[in-house]
Automatic annotation (TrEMBL):
Pfam family, one: PhyH
Span list, region Disordered: 267-290
Top-rank lineage group of the source organism: Bacteria
Name of the molecule in the record: Phytanoyl-CoA dioxygenase
Gene3D superfamilies for this protein: q2cbj1_9rhob like domain
Coiled coil: none
Organism: Streptomyces malaysiense
GO molecular function: 2-oxoglutarate-dependent dioxygenase activity; iron ion binding
């Protein structure tokens, strides 16, 4: 059954997530997927910073398909029902699980890597399905109510390469029997709290899984340290983030300049956040792999 606006806030407060939320139409999802694949080919051909940051954290600054999704009225209405009328996009991310990929991601929380004050009440991640998401293709799993415990300690699950590639995992037991699989049709989305514990499995199908994630915040969120930027998408902004601009077209020069500045600024700050959190241990780059 599709979740409607009146019950979003209560379910988000108690469970830490809501889905499915109807967002893009099937035709819009098909178009976005095609444009996303074209975008990935283009940035791969260009190389450099565009290719390095193709999947995160500022896709919306250079790609019109991403800009269109972050401004989608159905998504903004759903997020506004949770966070209020003033909304900014802090980050956009692509999460792709290729066909027959054996990769999986351990139970983790996004919040521990992001360096945001006020995220507990004033931020949410929207996970938009550009393809259907199923158990077979490695969709996300949520640990219901885990956001209520705040930021949990994390550790690597082992010393082998496979353990490290799976990322840091929560250093407390997760009740697998109570985990919820995020099953979405293309065009639908889920919304989760940034302290929601989640994981994902391997893709055992012959087609790739494509998801586009958007981190929405309100002006009541601020960076823990250093400068950062965000794009106002609804209401007014009186907050601590430098303003971003929408692209006039794909990869236009002004957009590229803004993109390079924004990702450099963000990467520097997030690297420092992760280093501070790990006290000199673990990776020095953000792990944000839903």
């Amino acid at each position: 059954m599709t979740t409607t606006a009146p019950d979003l806030a209560e379910r988000f407060r108690t469970d830490g997530f809501v889905f499915p939320v109807n967002a893009l139409t099937h035709a819009e999802a098909e178009q976005a997927l095609a444009e996303c694949q074209t975008y990935l080919r283009a940035v791969s051909a260009v190389g450099g910073a565009l290719a390095r940051y193709a999947a995160f954290p500022k896709i919306h600054l250079v790609a019109s398909w991403a800009d269109r999704i972050v401004h989608h009225p159905a998504i903004l209405d759903a997020v506004a029902s949770l966070l209020g009328p003033d909304l900014l996009v802090w980050s956009t991310n692509l999460f792709i699980r290729p066909a027959y990929s054996g990769s999986s991601l351990a139970w983790h929380q996004d919040a521990v890597y992001l360096g945001l004050d006020g995220y507990q009440q004033h931020a949410a991640r929207v996970w938009v399905a550009l393809t259907d998401t199923t158990i077979a293709n490695g969709t996300m799993r949520y640990a219901r109510g885990s956001h209520l415990h705040g930021a949990l300690p994390h550790r690597f699950g082992g010393s082998g390469l496979e353990d490290i590639m799976r990322g840091e995992e929560i250093a407390v037991d997760i009740d697998e029997a109570a985990a919820v699989d995020v099953l979405l049709d293309a065009g639908q989305c889920s919304v989760h709290h940034l302290a929601m514990a989640h994981a994902s499995g391997p893709n055992q199908t012959d087609t790739g899984r494509f998801n586009f994630a958007i981190d929405y915040i309100t002006p009541r969120v601020s960076p823990t340290a250093g400068e950062d930027s965000a794009l106002l998408v609804r209401g007014t902004d009186t907050g601590a983030f430098l303003p971003e601009r929408r692209p006039e077209s794909d990869f236009d020069q002004a957009a590229l300049n803004d993109f390079y500045s924004a990702v450099t600024r963000r990467q520097k700050r997030i690297n420092q956040t992760v280093q501070n959190r790990n006290a000199g241990k673990g990776p020095d780059t953000p792990r944000d792999p839903s």
